[in-house]
Amino acid sequence: GPIGVFDSGIGGLTVLKALMARLPHERTLYLGDTARVPYGTKSGEVVTRYSLKNAEFLLERGIKLLVVACNTASAAALPALQAALPVPVLGVIEPGARTALQRTRGGGVGVIGTPGTVRSGAYQRALEAGNPKVAVKAMACPLFVPLAEEGWTTGDVPLLVAKEYLAGFARDGVDTLVLGCTHYPLLKGVIAEVVGPHVSLVDSAEATAEAVATLLGEKGLLAPPAPASVGAPEHAFFVTDVPERFVEVGARFLGRPI
Ligand code: DGN
Fold first, then answer.
1. How far is the CA of 12 from the centre of ligand 1 (A)?
2. Is 234 helix (H, G, I), strand (E, B) or coil?
3. Which residues, other chains included, contact 42 with Cβ-Cβ below 8 Å and sequence gap of 6+?
């Protein structure tokens, strides 16, 4: 079966992009819950209810593994999804936290995400579970989401917003910063400019793709390479609202047409 991926909307395409690069032989099914986006400002209960619905839709289509691409949904709903589903379920938080712990030299780790992700404390818990001595500073950066979707990822406006959000990280001895939201990889340039070259940025999408590859390998679930005559594996997309905006904006997140 294919790998199932769901997100609150468009942002999870950054995770799908990393998955497709890391696992080029895998078929994928992506569900963007564009009717109910954003999740980032909603309560954990509501996000969990939506997440279970999304998972059910993908499960009915025969997925072998579920990737929760949305950080907010990973933070709120991972245990509920793992309890409810008969297939392995992976979120983006564990892999991002693990990579941050490998990277940090001084033990100061910053996390940025939606208000829901930060409020849940999920990254903080995952980091502290891996290393109790780590000093975590988390900050919600909600304006990064619309900026990324509008394609406003360079120039004065995103730079000013990034400075407002991130200036404190430099003072607090943070040497590693987790991009804990699907949209933030698009703003890597301005974020790096503000925090400076001594802060290592952790892309949760890439860390998750690596974790998916490891898990599929361990379970013997990797798709075999197809003969050249068969062509590239299929990637299917579903949305819960009309698809126009998803197709247009999504191409930028995925780095190729949808
Ligand atoms: N996909 C969400 C996340 O990674 O937390 C961001 C979009 C949103 O729901 N606000």
1. 8
2. coil
3. 72, 116
- Phi/psi for 112 (5° steps) reads -120, 145
Helices assigned H by DSSP within the chain: 13-22, 44-59, 71-84, 93-103, 115-120, 122-130, 144-149, 156-171, 188-195, 204-218, 244-254
Ligand 1 pocket test: pick from 31, 36, 39 the residue with the most ligand atoms within 8 Å of its Cβ: 39
The string of pLDDT tens digits covering residues 182-201 is 999 999 999 999 999 999 99
CA of 33 to the centre of ligand 1 (A): 11
pLDDT tens sequence across 17-62 = 999 999 999 999 999 999 999 999 999 999 999 999 999 999 999 9
Determine the longest span between alpha carbons in the chain, in angstroms: 56
Stated pTM of the model: 0.95
